[in-house]
Design a protein that fits this description.
The complex is a heterodimer of chains A (about 90) and B (about 375). Chain A has two helices and five strands, in the order ββααβββ. Chain A is an alpha+beta fold and about 90 residues long. Chain A has a five-stranded mixed β-sheet with strand order 2-1-5-3-4, with no helix packed on it. The chains are: A alpha+beta (about 90), B alpha/beta (about 375). At the A-B interface, strand 4 of A face strand 5, strand 6, strand 8 and helix 12 of B.
Chain lengths: ~90, ~375
C-alpha cells in the first residue's frame, strides 16, 4: 500500500503519526480515503468544491503532483507520498 | 574594480584564500558584495555571524524587536548582556566585534511594502529569516520584482526547509505556495516550540547558499527544496518547477507592486499581536481570578499540549489539547460558561473559533494565556 509521510505541523491531525498507509490507485483516491479516515483534516486540505487548497503541496517521490497528472497521478503500492507544508518559523 | 586587502585581512581570510573556488579574487568579490538579512532571530543569527566572518563587505539587518531572554536558546548572535536591547543593535555590535573590516547597517523597523524597496535596493542578495507569512510573501514579491535572489529558510520544531528562490532562473516562493495557510493551521515557534539548534542548521545552509551565489560557484538550491528532519537526521529534496501561471513570476503576473499581507495572519509584535484573534471574547487574568474567587461556575479548558502542564497549570482546569478539541465537543456543556487558555492566547483563540463554529456561545479566551495569569495572578508560576 502507498505511504503518506506527514510533516510535524500536520501530525496533530493524524493522532501524532509520522506516516500512514493510504489505499488507492490514484492520488485522488488516496486523499479521499485519507480524509474519510481523518475527517478533521478535510477542511484544511480541500476547499468547498473538493479541490486541494493552494497551500497544500503533495509530492510523489521528488515530484510535485502538480507537475505530474495532478490528482489523477497513478499510485503504485510502494510509492511514497509526502505532504510539504508552508512553514513560517524563523 | 574589486577592493584590495590589508595584511590583516589576508591573514584573516587565509583559509578561504587556500580554496581554489574562492581564492583572492573570490574573497575580494565577497568584500565587494552585500547581503540583506530580514530578521535577526533564529535563522538570521547564524546567517549574520557566518557572512560577517566570511567577509561579506556590507551586511544589512532588519528587525524591530528587542532581545528577550527566551530568544537566547537559539538566537546565538545575541548574548545575555543584550537582553532588552534592540536586536539590530545587539547583532551589529556582535558582528563588528567578529569582523571590524565590514560595514553593518541596522534597520530598526518592520519590513513593509512602504520601506522594503528602499531598504533592499543596494543589496545583492536577500535572506529570508523571518518568522511570519506576510513578510515571507513580501520578500518573495520584492525579489521577483527586483530580480534579486531570495535565500529561503523556515523551521518548525525539528524540521526545516531551505531553498533559493531566484525567479530569473527558476521558481519563486509563490510557485510553490501560491497562498499561505489560514491563520491557526500552522502554529508559530512561540506556540509550537523549536529545537534551538535547528535554525543553526538551516541558517548555516542559507549562509552557504548566499556565499555560493556571490562567488558564482557550485549548484544552488534553486529549483530544489531541502527538507531537513533533525530527529531522523535526514536531508531530502523535492523538485520545484516554475509555475507558468504564478501571480508573481508567471508569464502574466498580477503582482506588479508591493502590498502588505496582514490579512493572512497575525504578525507577532505588530497590530495583530498574539492572542488578538478572539478579540471581543476575551477575559483578562484578573477578571478570571475574580470570577473564580466569587465561585462562578466556569469550565476552564487548557488547550496546551500535555507536556506543557509540567511548566505551569491553573488548578481545576481540564486539559484538552487543541488538536483533540474537535473530537471532545460532545462532552462539553454549551450551557455552562467556558474559559479557554493556552500559553499566550493564540491556540486558545483558535479553540474559541472551533467552539463558536460548533454553536457554543458562552465561551471566552484568556487574554495572554497562562503567561498573563502567571504575571498578574499567580506569581509562583513561571511565564515561558
Amino acid at each position: 500500500m502507498p505511504t503518506l509521510k506527514i510533516p510535524t505541523p500536520l501530525r496533530s491531525y493524524f493522532n501524532g503519526q509520522t506516516e500512514v498507509p493510504v489505499s488507492g490507485t490514484t492520488v485522488e483516491q488516496a486523499m479521499q480515503n485519507l480524509m474519510d479516515q481523518f475527517p478533521q483534516l478535510r477542511p484544511h486540505l480541500t476547499n468547498s468544491t473538493g479541490q486541494l487548497r493552494p497551500f497544500v503541496n503533495l509530492f510523489l517521490g521528488e515530484d510535485n503532483i502538480k507537475d505530474l497528472k495532478g490528482l489523477d497521478t497513478p499510485l503504485g503500492p510502494d510509492d511514497i507520498l509526502r505532504l510539504v507544508p508552508s512553514v513560517a518559523g524563523g | 574594480m574589486l577592493p584590495e586587502f590589508t595584511h590583516e585581512e589576508i591573514l584573516r581570510y587565509s583559509r578561504h584564500l587556500l580554496i581554489p573556488e574562492v581564492g583572492l579574487d573570490g574573497q575580494r568579490k565577497l568584500k565587494a558584495s552585500s547581503v540583506l538579512i530580514i530578521g535577526t532571530g533564529g535563522l538570521g543569527s547564524p546567517v549574520a555571524l557566518y557572512l560577517a566572518a566570511a567577509g561579506v563587505g556590507h551586511i544589512g539587518l532588519v528587525d524591530y524587536d528587542v532581545v528577550d531572554v527566551s530568544n537566547l536558546q537559539r538566537q546565538i548572535v545575541h548574548g545575555t548582556g543584550m537582553v532588552g536591547r534592540l536586536k539590530v543593535d545587539s547583532a551589529r555590535t556582535r558582528l563588528l566585534d567578529l569582523n571590524p573590516a565590514i560595514q553593518v547597517e541596522a534597520f530598526n523597523e518592520p519590513f513593509t511594502s512602504i520601506n522594503a524597496m528602499k531598504i533592499a535596493k543596494p543589496f545583492d542578495v536577500i535572506i529570508d529569516g523571518t518568522d511570519n507569512f506576510p513578510t515571507r510573501y513580501l520578500i518573495n514579491d520584492l525579489c521577483v520584482l527586483t530580480g534579486k535572489p531570495n535565500i529561503y529558510g523556515a523551521i518548525y520544531r525539528f524540521e526545516g526547509q531551505a531553498s533559493v528562490f531566484y525567479a530569473k532562473e527558476g521558481p519563486c516562493y509563490r510557485c510553490l505556495f501560491p497562498e499561505p495557510p489560514p491563520p491557526g493551521l500552522v502554529p508559530s515557534c512561540a506556540d509550537a516550540g523549536v529545537l534551538g539548534i535547528l535554525p543553526g542548521t538551516i541558517g548555516t545552509i542559507q549562509a552557504t547558499e548566499a556565499i555560493k551565489f556571490l562567488l558564482g560557484i557550485g549548484s544552488s538550491l534553486a529549483g530544489r527544496l531541502l527538507l531537513y528532519d533533525a530527529l531522523d537526521m535526514s536531508f531530502e529534496y523535492v523538485k520545484l518547477k516554475k509555475n507558468p501561471s504564478c501571480k508573481a513570476c508567471g508569464s502574466h503576473p498580477e503582482i506588479t507592486g508591493l502590498v502588505d499581507y496582514f490579512e493572512f495572519c497575525g504578525v507577532p509584535g505588530l497590530d495583530h499581536a498574539e492572542g488578538s484573534m478572539g478579540a471581543g471574547r476575551e477575559i483578562t487574568a484578573l477578571q478570571l481570578a475574580k470570577k473564580l474567587k466569587r465561585g462562578d461556575k466556569t469550565h476552564l479548558i487548557d488547550v496546551r499540549e500535555p507536556h506543557e502542564l509540567a511548566i505551569s497549570r491553573i488548578e481545576g482546569a481540564q486539559n484538552i489539547p487543541l488538536g483533540e478539541l474537535a473530537s471532545h465537543l460532545e462532552e462539553l456543556d454549551s450551557a455552562q460558561e467556558i474559559v479557554l487558555f493556552c500559553k499566550s492566547g493564540t491556540r486558545s483563540a483558535r479553540a474559541l473559533e472551533i467552539l463558536m463554529s460548533a454553536g457554543f456561545r458562552k465561551v471566552k479566551n484568556l487574554h495572554g494565556g497562562i503567561n498573563a495569569w502567571a504575571r498578574e495572578v499567580d506569581r509562583s508560576l513561571p511565564p515561558y
